[in-house]
């Protein structure tokens, strides 16, 4: 586009009866799917290009089922790209560890846990980007 503006988007519809999440990803960070037990974390697949980069883009729809006890962590890059006072990134691995450490809690408590971990990590370093976080948990 002429103004070189774009936006990322993750659009999802949840069917609460089947716990099916139908979604498209237009260049956004892939949500994190976590579950109880060891090695139960993976990033949701399917990523397209950001909106506004090219005209007439189409996006593939994907579907996943969220099993009882699993949670999906939706986040902006302001979380994974947050830096500590020395410049080190918070990163995806730390997000995974933080989210998995509290999978037994409800959605609100998972958000609170990740936020506190992020705040501890960045300490007094300035915030460089937006920080948005949402958790969907199947009960």
What would the keywords be for this entry?
alpha+beta, 3-stranded antiparallel sheet, 139 residues, 3 helices, flat, 7 strands, 4-stranded antiparallel sheet
Structure write-up:
22% of the residues lie in helices and 24% in strands. A hairpin with a 4-residue loop joins strand 1 (9-15) and strand 2. It has three helices and seven strands. It is an alpha+beta fold. The chain is flat.
According to DSSP, the number of beta strands is: 7
Strand order of the largest sheet: 4-3-6-7
Assign an overall shape.
flat
Main sheet specs: 4 strands, antiparallel
Assign the structural class, choosing from mainly alpha, mainly beta, alpha/beta, alpha+beta, or little secondary structure: alpha+beta
| DSSP helix fraction | 10-25%
Distance between the termini: 43 Å
Low-confidence stretches: none
Order of helices and strands: EEEEEEHHHE
How large is the share of residues in beta strands?
A: 15-25%
Radius of gyration: 16 Å
Overall pLDDT score: 93
**SS field, number of helical segments:** 3
């Amino acid at each position: 586009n002429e103004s070189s503006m774009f936006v990322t988007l993750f659009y999802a519809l949840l069917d609460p009866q089947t716990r099916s999440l139908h979604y498209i990803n237009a260049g956004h960070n892939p949500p994190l799917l976590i579950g109880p037990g060891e090695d139960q974390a993976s990033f949701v697949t399917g990523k397209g290009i950001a909106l506004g980069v090219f005209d007439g883009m189409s996006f593939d729809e994907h579907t996943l089922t969220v099993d009882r006890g699993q949670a999906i962590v939706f986040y902006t890059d302001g979380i994974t790209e947050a830096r500590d006072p020395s410049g080190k990134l918070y990163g995806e691995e730390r997000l995974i560890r933080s989210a998995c450490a509290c999978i037994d809690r409800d959605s609100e408590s998972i958000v609170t846990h990740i936020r506190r971990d992020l705040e501890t990590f960045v300490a007094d370093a300035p915030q460089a980007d937006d920080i948005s976080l949402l958790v969907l948990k199947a009960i």
